[in-house]
Amino acid sequence: MLSTISQIYDPLGLLSPAVIISKILLQKLWLSKLDWDTPVSPEIVVTWNNFLATFNHLNDLKIPRHVIGDDPQHVELHVFTDASQSAYGACAYIRTYSDNSDVTVKLLCAKSKVAPLKSITIPRLELCGALVGAKLYKKVIESLRLTFNRVFFWTDSTIVISWVQMSPHLLKPFVQNRVTEINELTNDSIWFHVASGDNPADLLSRGLNLDMLASCDLWWTGPPYLRNHRFNIQDHVKSFGNDKPYINVLPELRSQDASNFICVRSEVFIQFENYSSFNKLRRTWAYVLRFLNNTRNRIHRSDKSIDQLDCLSVDELNASELILAKFAQMQSFPELYERLLSNLPIKSNGKKMNCISGLNVFLDAQNIIRVGGRLGNATTFDYDKKHPILLCNKHHFSPLTPGHFLIGRPLTAPPVESLLDVSTSRLSRYHYIEQLRQQFWQRWSREYVSELQQRTKWKTQQKDIKLDALVILKDDNLPPLKWRLGRIKQVYPGADGVSRVADIYTAAGVTRRAFSKICPLPLQPEE
């Protein structure tokens, strides 16, 4: 009987007339039960009488109905939660203040529930108390026609704070369901830690006699630091849940089964064969990139009118071409692309890779495969001319791009008669455009400098000639028996790190020769 009484009793419940009447009926029922059952111990009777004697202090309780200060500039809502083996619940306080006035903190409402008869752990009860606090907050927001500047949620359980900050899928069902509901009700608000001695909800969960309730400032006006005008949230709270070692020892976590995952790069991200026109393909993806850019920029700015909505610019079309070329390369050369991303050497296994190895390919700043070579030292060519983009001639994007970009139609289109020698004044507009296309094609076919990028030999890097190595210098004007003997003095690496020129000591002095004219002598065994 005593346990039942302690579970029903809580400070806020005594203020309800219905609860008072129920306790009176409980008294009569309990007294009548004494006549029917065996006598109880004297200690229980004394405890029960002392409990009834505290009812006289109900007359000392005065609850103000006005909880908001006069013309406040700032209004805050603070929700405290707690739990014990007997009960759990939450209480809400309104904190109001102005820049030149005192701070006012008053109790708004509270809600408590009796702990279940089935034994349950304290962390679970604390979580149930937090859920009551979240529901109480939702009820306050819906009931009051008041806008709060800030809302704070408090609990003295660091485990609950960690659970709320974690992803729900990492938790067991009991905790997962309640954490999900708490986040939905509080709009993913942050929960802060409060010491048990400063937590007014601790009085709600453990109970307080009526003779002490009237003078309990912690219950009526909250913790002392809330009444300070210089209250700073960072000085009084401590956030938990981000420390990885601490998370590993949390209760109610799902078991992490070891699993093996294989990441496979999709080869059909863009269906190039669905586009018959290069312009259509380029403009479509230009709009896709514009949408992505506008969406990402909205996160960092509030003015949505800055979104780019006018006609496509040249820069957008060029960016679309580059991203399409990148996807085409990922589909045509997946192994090559992965090896370049991982800074691994290119393997010359297969006919295709053997051809690519002679192009000195590399990844640019946008992770697009480009052709390297000695044209990188040229000053009269632009970057695209010195380092053209690598494309597979069997990919749909490759016959689409040159045909539409160079002659304005697919390469398989019927040929048109040559208009290069026809006077412009005799041509219609259609034939004039065709003449311009033919002139452009003629110039492109003649300017084949970029074709000289390919290396026909020395596709793989050989071992460099070491210093002080004994060598023979080739001389096209002398027979081999007359070639001079020398020793390597210094080598000169190029921009790609490969040495191609060296200085050699000879009987006639120091001379400089290319590696193609140097024959190292195999006098030392290979390492």
Largest sheet: 5 strands, mixed
Relative strand content: 5-15%
Measured as a percent range, the helix fraction is 25-40%
Distance between the termini: 92 Å
Can you list the strand order of the major beta sheet?
A: 3-2-1-4-5
Shape: elongated
- CATH topology category name of the largest domain: Nucleotidyltransferase, domain 5
**Rg measurement, Å:** 42 Å
How many domains, as an integer?
A: 4
Number of strands: 12
On the 0-100 scale, what is the average pLDDT?
A: 79
Low-confidence stretches: 1-22
Q: H/E order of the elements?
A: HHHEEEHEHHEHHHHHHHHHEEHHHEEEEE
List keywords for this structure.
527 residues; alpha+beta; Nucleotidyltransferase, domain 5; 4 domains; five-stranded antiparallel beta sheet; 18 helices; 12 strands; disordered N terminus
Detailed description of the structure:
By secondary structure, this protein is an alpha+beta fold. The protein has 4 domains: 2-60; 74-248, Nucleotidyltransferase, domain 5; 272-298 and 310-453, no CATH class; 470-520. Helices cover 37% and strands 15% of the residues. The chain has 18 helices and 12 strands. The protein has helices spanning 2-8, 17-36, 42-53, 122-143, 158-165, 173-186, 201-206, 210-213, 217-221, 233-236, 244-248, 278-298, 314-332, 334-341, 351-356, 383-386, 397-407, 429-446, and strands at residues 74-83, 87-97, 104-114, 150-155, 191-193, 361-363, 369-371, 470-473, 485-493, 499-506, 509-514, 518-520. It has a 5-stranded mixed β-sheet with strand order 3-2-1-4-5. A 5-stranded antiparallel β-sheet has the order 11-10-9-8-12, with no helix packed on it. A two-stranded antiparallel ribbon has the order 6-7. Strand 9 and strand 10 form a beta hairpin. Helix 4 runs parallel beside helix 6 (173-186) and helix 12 (278-298) crosses helix 13. It is elongated and about 130 Å long. It starts with a helix and ends in a 7-residue tail after the last strand. 20% of the residues are buried.
